[in-house]
Structures are given as C-alpha cells and as structure tokens.
Amino acid sequence: MSAPVRQQGTAARTAALLLPGAVALHDRYLAELEHLVSIDSGSYSPDGVNQVAAWTVRRLTSLGFAVDRVPVTAEGRETCFGDLVVGRLRGQLPVERGGRRILLAGHMDTVFDDGTAADRPFRRSGPLAHGPGVSDDKGGLLAGLTAVELLLRRGMLDFAELVFLATPDEEVGSPASRPVTVSLSHGIHYALGLECARENGDLVVARKGVADFVITVTGRAAHAGIEPERGANAALAAAHLLIDCQQMNGRWGDVSVNVGMMRAGSRINIVCPEAELHVEVRSSTDTGIRLARQAIEAAAASLSVPGATATVRQTEAIPAMEDTPAARAMLTHALEAGRELAIDLGAAATGGVGDANTIAGAGVPTLDGLGPVGGGDHGPDEWLDVTTVPRRVALLAALIVALGDTGGH
Fold first, then answer.
1. DSSP-derived secondary structure for 329-384
2. Tens digits of per-residue pLDDT, 18-30?
3. Structurally, how many domains does the chain consist of?
4. Which PANTHER family is this protein grouped with (predicted)?
5. Which residue among 318, 336, 368 closes a domain?
6. pLDDT tens figures, 111-153
C-alpha cells in the first residue's frame, strides 16, 4: 500500500503559485489543440494515430523525457493499431527519501472515421471548442503535457519519476495496449487519468468494470415440416436465456447485464440447431461481475428446451476502478487545490471504461477526469470549455506536487 499522501496545504499553495503560468501557456495550448483535433486518429486508423504519436514523442522529448514508442498488437486479432508512447522523467527526490512515481495516462485515439476532421474541423464558439476528439481525449492528453511543462518551468521536481502513457486503442477497450499498461503500472505509486472532467466539472473516483461473454446454444436440427419433434430449437432456448439474463438487472445493486447481440439459425425450414448470445456485464466492483457470471452460467446450465445445451465463454475482462480510501485521499488534495482555484469539484462514478480501470486493477491508487471540462463525447457536438483549461492545468500540476513528495520534504 502506498504511504499516506502529503499533509494538507501543499496542493492549495502550489495551485496558487502555478495559475499565472498556466494562463501564460493558454494560447499555445489552444493552437496545439487545434492541430491535434485536425488529425483523424480513429482507433482503426493507425496512420492517423501514429501522427499523434509522433507529435507526442516530440513534445515529451522537448520536455526532457526519455521516450519509447512501442508497436502493439492484440493477441488473436488481425486489426492493426497505432503505436503506444511512454515517456519517463526522473525527478529530484528518490523513493527512499519519500519521492513517488506518478503515472499520467491519456489516449491518442478517437471513435471517429477518417474524414471526420475535414467534415467537422476544429472551431471555437464562445467558450467552447468543437471537433472530433476535442474532449475525448485530445484536450486531456494536452492538459497533461502542459501541466508537466508548468512544473518544469517552476523547477518543481520533488518526485521520484513521472511516467507519461499515451495509448492508441482505448476507445475499443485497449486490447493491444492493456498488457503494456499493466506492466507499466508495476512500481507506480499514484496514477492520474487525463480523461476530461465530467460536464459538471466533477472528477472521476470510480469506473465500472466490464466482462463480455459469448453463450453458444446447441440444439438439434430436424425438418421443420415433417418431423419437428425430433429437433431441439436452439433459437427458442436462446430466447428464454436472453430473458433470464435481462432479468438479472437490479439483482445486485448497480450490476447491469445486457444481451447486445443474438444470432440464430440459417434456414427457415430447419429446426434451429445453434444460436449465440453476446452478453455484457458492468459493475462497480469485481464481486458484482463474479456474481453475474455465476448466475449466467447457472442459467445456461438449465435451459428450458429439452435436448439443448449451452456453453459460456468469457471474451473480455476489464477490472473495475473501485472507489477506495486511497483514491479518496488523492481526491482530498484535488479538492483542496480546487478551492484555492475557485473550482467547485465533486466526485463522480461512471459506467464508462477507460485505461484507468486497468491501472487501478493493477493495484495503483487512481484518480481520473483530470483534464479540462468537456462533454458530448463520441458525438457530432463534442465540446471542450476552453475557459476551464488554465485552472484545470494548474489543478493537475498541483496534484502532482502534492503526491510526488510523501515524505514532507
């Protein structure tokens, strides 16, 4: 377990010192944001993601990071993803003197197809900036880089190490980057997620975990007109199983169970011999996912159609980012800095999954939503409130300082 975070007062004092510098960097932030948003970098567009990766490498290198650009592939998939970027910056306070290793995590990919940046280019409308990925997560990724620069300009290096992670496939569940993220989390004391803040400004203290299942129902084919009694209709068994799964909602608090896809049969004159259900489970705790899996397996073992059988296979498992005392201790420092910056902060739990889930699942205390305020993610009206950028950058930088020196130096 990580040592207790530094005494109260550090985050507030640091935030006040850093705000003028964050304001001074604002114009460049906006210019860089426009550049990044103009690049199509959908998860399945590796060339575009790699343009963002190359830019991120240059930016990290200019800040003094030692940078690795890592090609990643997803086991068992032919899909090609862009490269992962990892930067490491040594601080001035060794671990044995109370210094801590802090991971900053953001992602370079978006959900949008090639051509979207040209169809909906970056634009400003009053306090809001619009464009594909402006909030999720180019605004947050850039906020992390800007916060680090702010600290370097002030010579605030009282930490053991900063590790900056930029992933290429977060929007599709990080199938290629997840093993690297888990490995990178070893030895990290605190993690700060660079997803943008909730629309009301809240930080994210918990994210639901996800487990995906494929249920294969096997029946017995027969001529539907001549001897249907010799068959076992897999589609009918799957239909009853679908209802059983949907009725699990509400059984264990916030656990949700959704049958998102169903496939059955191939010809209308054959008693259906096989069907398939794709089921997603989400829960704020790993215990909730375990209970749902047990219930799904029990339902699959007792089908309503004689002669039909079912097998359950788990295809995805992303741990919950649970609301823990360690995360709440980090939040305390953020709230302290927020008060100094006149930011009204709250703590949110969300059903959305991100790289913070993987990091928290590896045992690292994690706080997310530390980018500027944004919303409309994944839609045509995605926005970022650019007036929130300087204070949110100062908040993030102050939090790094508060967490980086747990020895009180």
1. HHHHHHHHHHHHTT----EEEES---HHHHHHHTT--EEB--EEEEE-TTSTT-EE
2. 999 999 999 999 9
3. 2
4. ACETYLORNITHINE DEACETYLASE (PTHR43808), BLL0789 PROTEIN (PTHR43808:SF9)
5. 318
6. 999 999 999 999 999 999 999 999 999 999 999 999 999 999 9
